[in-house]
């Protein structure tokens, strides 16, 4: 490959995946900027490692030689100069005329080529290409032409990449928590709400954690450092939780934690202290929203969905 694109190397495992970057252009993720080269590629394997050779138009042999021809004015014979050479003199091999003066006795037509394989005489050789990668050969007209441009991310592409990085960073939480599905989480929560209404000993808490500025953190610290930061946060929060606690996450970067047999406040403060202790000593800090509801705060109409909506809409 003559050219590589650092952006493509970041987005794809195959740094030479030209078809994929063309698809990204069609999707407006990246765009062509400036034309820097136009190259011809093998029609068979798309390799740029090709070379050109001159061959005989008749038999395609490369054993050709450029020769000077003489034209005898006396008899009209045309032949290679070697045929006329007799020592230091020029003598027509057909009529034996002694050729002394150019323009009077003879002239020199345009130089021609002679094939040493088949004897064919021609004015210009045929040019063919040969691929050093696959061995394909043929007319240069059959070569594929590819233009190479500098490329850059579009605004849409930048936002798309940031969103993908945000998903990657949030997925780091998977290493520290064992998630259940949202449907299963709501099923457990509904069940405990009903149990609590029958027996107040079945107390519980529902905790919501929303990470609010993941994009800002990624832009400031980069993807690798951001992953380290959120991995540490997840590990510390996981240490606070018990084996009986149930964790769920949704597609909106929210972490739901069900805390059975919980009736005392304090976990929000502990989580806040955890994040405070590992906050980067930089301008951009980790911001998150945390809110907890306890079973004794339930209204008569509360179910799992309503309770989660209340937490999600409340401001910290």
Automatic annotation (TrEMBL):
Pfam families: GGDEF, TackOD1
Location of the EF-hand domain: 299-316
Domain (GGDEF): residue spans on this chain: 202-316
UniProt-listed SUPFAM superfamilies: Nucleotide cyclase (SSF55073)
GO MF, one annotated term: calcium ion binding
Gene3D superfamilies for this protein: 3.30.70.270
Descriptive protein name: GGDEF domain of diguanylate cyclase
Organism: Thermodesulfobium acidiphilum
Source organism phylogeny: Bacteria, Pseudomonadati, Thermodesulfobiota, Thermodesulfobiia, Thermodesulfobiales
């Amino acid at each position: 490959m003559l050219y590589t694109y650092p952006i493509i190397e970041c987005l794809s495992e195959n740094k030479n995946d030209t078809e994929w970057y063309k698809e990204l252009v069609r999707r407006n993720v990246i765009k062509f900027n400036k034309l820097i080269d136009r190259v011809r590629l093998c029609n068979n394997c798309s390799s740029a490692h090709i070379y050109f050779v001159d061959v005989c138009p008749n038999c395609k042999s490369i054993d050709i030689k450029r020769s000077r021809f003489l034209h005898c004015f006396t008899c009209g014979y045309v032949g290679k100069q070697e045929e006329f050479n007799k020592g230091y003199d020029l003598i027509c091999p057909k009529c034996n005329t002694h050729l002394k003066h150019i323009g009077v006795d003879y002239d020199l037509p345009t130089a021609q080529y002679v094939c040493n394989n088949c004897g064919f005489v021609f004015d210009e050789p045929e040019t063919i290409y040969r691929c050093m990668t696959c061995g394909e050969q043929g007319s240069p007209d059959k070569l594929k032409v590819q233009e190479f441009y500098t490329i850059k991310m579009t605004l849409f592409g930048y936002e798309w990449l940031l969103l993908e990085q945000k998903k990657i960073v949030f997925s780091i939480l998977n290493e520290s928590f064992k998630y259940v599905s949202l449907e299963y989480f709501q099923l457990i929560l509904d069940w405990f709400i009903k149990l609590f209404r029958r027996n107040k000993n079945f107390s519980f808490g529902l905790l919501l954690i929303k990470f609010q500025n993941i994009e800002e953190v990624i832009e400031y610290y980069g993807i690798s450092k951001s992953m380290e930061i959120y991995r540490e946060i997840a590990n510390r929060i996981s240490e606070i939780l018990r084996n009986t606690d149930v964790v769920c996450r949704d597609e909106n970067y929210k972490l739901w934690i069900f805390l059975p047999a919980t009736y005392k406040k304090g976990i929000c403060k502990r989580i806040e202290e955890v994040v405070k202790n590992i906050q980067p000593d930089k301008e951009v800090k980790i911001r998150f929203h945390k809110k907890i509801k306890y079973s004794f705060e339930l209204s008569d109409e509360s179910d799992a969905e309503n309770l989660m909506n209340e937490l999600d809409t409340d401001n910290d």
